[in-house]
Amino acid sequence: MSISKFRENIINSGCGKVIAIVVGAVVLGGVVFTSCSRQQVASTVIGKDGKEIAVIAEFGGQKLTVADLAEKSKEIGQQFGGAELPSEFQIMMDGQALSQLLDQAAITEIARQEGVALDDESVLKSFDTEIVNEKKRIREQLVTMGKLKDGATEDDFKKAFKEVSQGQDLDEQITQARKTLADQLKDTEKRASLLAKLAPTLLQIKLRRSISVTDQDVTTYVTEFTAKRIVFLDSKEPGKAEERAKKVVAEVRGGLSFDDAINKYSDEPAEANKKKSDRTVLVSGAQIDFSAENKAVAKLKVGDVSEPVKTFEGYSIVKLISSTPKPPKDFDKQKEQIKAEIERGRLTSIIREKVEAFKKSNKPRFNLKGFEALYDFTMLATDSSDPKVVQTKRDDVLKRALEVAKSKNNVDQGVGAMVYYAGTKQKANNPEISRATILPELELSTKLMTEVKDSPELHLDLADIYREMKKGTEAGEQLLAAARLNTKHDPSGQALFQAIATKIGDFKKDKLITDEVAAAVDKEQNRWREENKKIEAERAKAEAEEKKAREAAEKQQKDYEAAQKKKPAVKKE
């Protein structure tokens, strides 16, 4: 078991930095950013194989390429077991990958601005410093686990580590990790990539020095807070949420009861058969750094009411109803772990705030408009503006995506088509938009998607769209195309076969397709059915042969055991 696995599976306190993260970065390798140099946006860069790689954008002084995005998308896709995803989900995954890569670029630049040295000597020095700190934390955890006595010798510590890490030698792992790190820093092809991966860790090391965790912080961490809140949504009255919140605070402090204020003013709906004021919010100490609202709750005394708090959806006012300390039984032993967890949470919060501030004042400079549309489309998912404002923004993004999708730029033409397709599908779910209005857009977006990914599912979607538009000829053509493209004989292929069979009947009933087209579809369905019979027969034959071989092996084992029992016992002299 590696050190990082030891930290993750045995200690799992989240306080490890260089051992758990630096070693992980060294082992993972892979390209993240092609260059850390400050250059103007170029259309391409030269990859390790000497071939040109298209540059998507520049951000934080770094050039992000299509190869970087493909690698990050693949990494995220592994969470789904490598399964092929529907197009609208694939574009969401690609958008998330692009967002993460831009955040990485921002963190690297923030690290530079914070004075984090990214030269080889400084990186190795930070590694050595953190190894000392990490060994101290591991020792403390082993004591807490009862695997090591307090004040134990260095030899006892190493033995305890080896015991819980399945025989791994701590010093050997540290030496090997440092050597690997030094070697990769010398590798000109891997160095920039490695530094981009290490920047978040080195930034945390720098910022950690300014964080002080007190005993009161630890006590707060193990306290459960009960609160009530009044919610003011931006979407209800755009631009007026803060003003409304301030007026209600003044009324409450002027004598209006908080419960009456909740029932009168809160935009948060009541639970079934209850009043709005019956709702309470539980906040554990571990959740304090998760949101501004939680932080406000933790600062209040019981009975106090906060000033307006900015939230993702608008503003809120909170009142603390009760606070109940709930320390664990072995609280004294866990204090150091809790301090480390608080520190980690604050570091995460600080870095997140710095990244958001950086992104507000620095915008990515895109070289490829399709990927720019992808990024803007992804950002709409977290846009808390008025729904009509968000829709206007979405329409602008889709307009730009459509222009790219119709272009002849092979690099991002497909990305533009996928953004336009996913956005049009979202619009189609808006009950305020009529089907008659959205159908032509659905038709165009799906047709453009078939040029990117010619799947039978897309042709089935087109068939349904043409059915709604009462275009029989086109509906029949798409149904036939779906049947011809159905070559899979797994559950997805079987489901497709059934869907096509159902639609043939429906289309005939609606008199949308001719007998000739229906016969052509039936022919393709019969082709699939016959192929499926052969595949199932081969599968059954293979299973029968496997069963026969297994039974023969079992019989051979039983015969051997029976023969052994019949052998006469050997008499001892």
Report on this structure:
The protein is α+β, with helices and mostly antiparallel strands. It is 63% helix and 8% strand. It is built from 21 helices and eight strands. The protein has helices spanning 3-11, 18-28, 66-77, 87-113, 120-144, 154-164, 170-186, 188-208, 215-221, 241-253, 258-265, 292-299, 331-361, 369-379, 387-406, 413-428, 435-452, 456-468, 472-485, 491-509, 515-566, and strands at residues 44-46, 52-59, 62-65, 223-233, 281-284, 309-310, 314-325, 365-366. Strands 1, 2, 3 and 8 form a four-stranded antiparallel sheet that branches. A four-stranded antiparallel sheet has the order 5-4-7-6, sandwiched between helices.
Provide the structure class: alpha+beta
Calculate Rg over CA atoms.
Answer: 31 Å
- Largest sheet, described in full? 4 strands, antiparallel
β content, as a range? 5-15%
Count of runs of 4 or more consecutive helical residues:
21
What is the string of SSEs from the N terminus onward? HHEEEHHHHHHHEHHEHEEHEHHHHHHHH
Low-confidence stretches: 1-41
Number of strands: 8
- Shape annotation: globular
- Percent helix: 55-70%
Averaged pLDDT: 84
Task: Determine the N-to-C terminus distance.
Answer: 50 Å
Concise summary:
This protein is α+β, with helices and mostly antiparallel strands and 573 residues long. It contains 21 helices and eight strands. Strands 1, 2, 3 and 8 form a four-stranded antiparallel beta sheet that branches. Strands 5-4-7-6 form a four-stranded antiparallel beta sheet, sandwiched between helices.
